[in-house]
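As a point of orientation, let us examine one representative protein, giving the amino acid sequence and backbone structure tokens.
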Amino acid sequence: MLSVLYALITLAGWGTWLAPSQKVNFPNQQIKTLYVVATNLAIALLVALWLGSIAELNAATFWLTLLGGVIWAVGGLCAFTGTNKLGVAKAFGIWAPLNIIVSLIWGTLLFDEFVNISAGTILLLVAAILTILVGVLLIIFAKGADEGGQDRREFRLGLAGAVGAGILWGSYFIPVQYSGVSAWGGAFPQAIGMAVGGTILALLSRQSWKLSTPSDYGWACLSGALWSLGNYGVLLLIGELGAGRGFTIAQTSVVVSALVGIYWLHEPAPKTRAAHLTLIGCVLATIGGILLGNLK
């Protein structure tokens, strides 16, 4: 039952967190990343003080989990670049299955989660990967199905961002898992690492941190709060089910994100062929990810 609860918390947070800030006019994607990580740090500090989880940390575990946060911040910049160029539904649909594949690879190499694979498992593995590939290709080529295409340079930049997020966000949880600290203990130094990475990226961009309207600050911080909610959910889920399977279930939030992107943000517009292909691609990629996550 706990794993079901943790999964629902994760889907609620990670399925919706991109939407509030998507229509805020940020100076650039580095500043967007900064507001998300700053909000997450504030929440993580409050939770750590409330639970007293900082006491379980030592120098080694602190720096390991902080490193995970820095990796997330760079992945966040990649993700925001992807959503800016491709839209939430498409970018999320590309990086989510990549998150699954990368996290499963790490789970196998570092945590011995998949050993002694049978012939039947190999066939299931091939079927899952093919399903994911078909889903991702549908998402990629859905752009322009109704709109006559997109500037090639913009598309390539968005695709590179989504792929980068897939690799980095499939890896950032590893230092936390490897350190051996609890989900609650690791969340705070991880949040510090995210804030450090986000601040460095923002400073390097040499853009103003000021937003256009007071409501923009609220929407930006709401994105950070929703991500934080989903993050606590996935860390707890990993603790219950293991790194590979826990992270795989978390990536099914791609379907929620696709629905939000299409029917709220209109990226792409609902009832268009592009929207239908994007949604089908997200569902296929998720099915493939679930198959991968249940490999024994």
